[in-house]
Amino acid sequence: MAGTFLLGVGCQKGGTAWLHRYLEASPQCDPGFRKEYHVWDALDLASGKLARERIENQGGQRAEFLTDPERYFDYFSGLLEPESVRLTADITPGYAALSVERLSMIRSGFAARDVRPVGVYLVRDPVERIWSAARMDMRRRGDDAPEDPETRVSHMYKHPMYADRTRYDLTMDALEAAFPREDVFYGFYERLFSTQTLTPLCAFLGIDFHEPDTGRQVNVSPKSEGAALPEDTRRTIARHFAPVYDAVQRRFPDLDLADLWPSMRLL
Q1: CA nearest neighbour of 48 among 165, 170, 174, 177
Q2: Within 10 A of 108 (CB to CB), how many other CB atoms are there?
Q3: d(Cα 78, Cα 80) in Å, to the nearest integer?
Q4: Residue 80 has pLDDT above 80, yes or no
Q5: Rounded Cα distance, 47 and 49, in Å
Q6: Contacts of 70 (CB under 8 A, 6+ apart)
Q7: Which of 38, 183, 200, 243 could form a disulfide with 179 if both were Cys (CB 3.0 to 4.6 A apart)?
Q8: pLDDT number for residue 1
Q9: Is 0.85 surpassed by the pTM of this model?
């Protein structure tokens, strides 16, 4: 194999930006000209419509990937040609909703070029993930924000823009249907910034471990002073996503998930 291609499928607000910065700091990794390429969600998903319009309007290399996906495979394979480079990556959280067929197609496209394709999926306590996403959305709107994040999350947690990216169970099923289980790595946001996760991840990706800058924050959604979610809101959201907690616990039966994800105690 010429090297490894990492398909990062999320989750949104699960540490993917920090992971990208960590990996690109390795001399053995060349992720190319951006973190999120938004090729496959732009082609396949309703949620990728705006990304597709933006890419097509901008033109350039990503627009070429949309019109001829073979160029996507050629581009990343080319990044692995230098002997010193072992890893390249496209870490786009929007890919969490891709179909088994598309994930299988991506895997086959790289395997045909003698590149080892792997999937990496970071997950986070569902309640905390949705709350963080709501804070990000309201911060982006600035003075036009219609409400505070805590109010928004209390009634928007079922909306597809939040719920679809929190169905870890569905994404895990799709990944494991498209990739051999040994070619999928799951990481927990709550443990990401540690050697406990990064050492096995680097080994999985075929690069040498390097020390992380654990003090560096990337794309965070800070909480306002005194902000908190009422327990009733936490309980309602947690119960809505009970299948997600159950699926993750089944995949990691030896893990005390309620300790890692305290919202699980509200089920």
Answers
A1: 165
A2: 13
A3: 5
A4: yes
A5: 6
A6: 109
A7: 183
A8: 73
A9: yes
ω into 202 cis (within 30 of 0): no
Distance from chain centroid for Cα 121:
6
Token pair of 263 as six digits? 């919202």
Domains of the chain with bracketed CATH = 4-266 (3.40.50.300)
Q: What is the pLDDT of residues 91-130, one digit of tens each?
A: 999 999 999 999 999 999 999 999 999 999 999 999 999 9
CA distances from 90 to 25, 93, 245, 263 (A): 15, 10, 27, 31
Q: How far is CA 230 from the centre of its chain?
A: 27
Would you say 1 and 116 are in contact if contact means Cβ atoms under 8 Å apart? yes
Query: Left if phi > 0, otherwise alpha if psi is -120 to 50, otherwise beta: which for 252?
Result: beta
Rg (CA), the chain: 19
DSSP the chain: ---EEEEE---TTSSHHHHHHHHHTSTTB--TT-S----HHHHH-GGGHHHHHHHHHH-SHHHHHHH-THHHHHHHHHHT-STT--EEEEE-GGGGG--HHHHHHHHHHHHTTT-EEEEEEEE--HHHHHHHHHHHHHHHHGGG-SS-HHHHHHHHTTSHHHHGGG-HHHHHHHHHHHS-GGGEEEEEGGGSSSHHHHHHHHHHHTS------TT---S--PPPTT----HHHHHHHHHHTHHHHHHHHHHSTTS-HHHHSGGGGG-
CA distance 104 to 180: 10
Range 197-220 average pLDDT = 86
Name, in order, each residue with C-beta under 8 angstroms of 132's C-beta and a sequence gap of 6 or more: 13, 124, 221
Phi, psi of 174 (to 5 degrees): -65, -45
What pLDDT sits at residue 226?
59
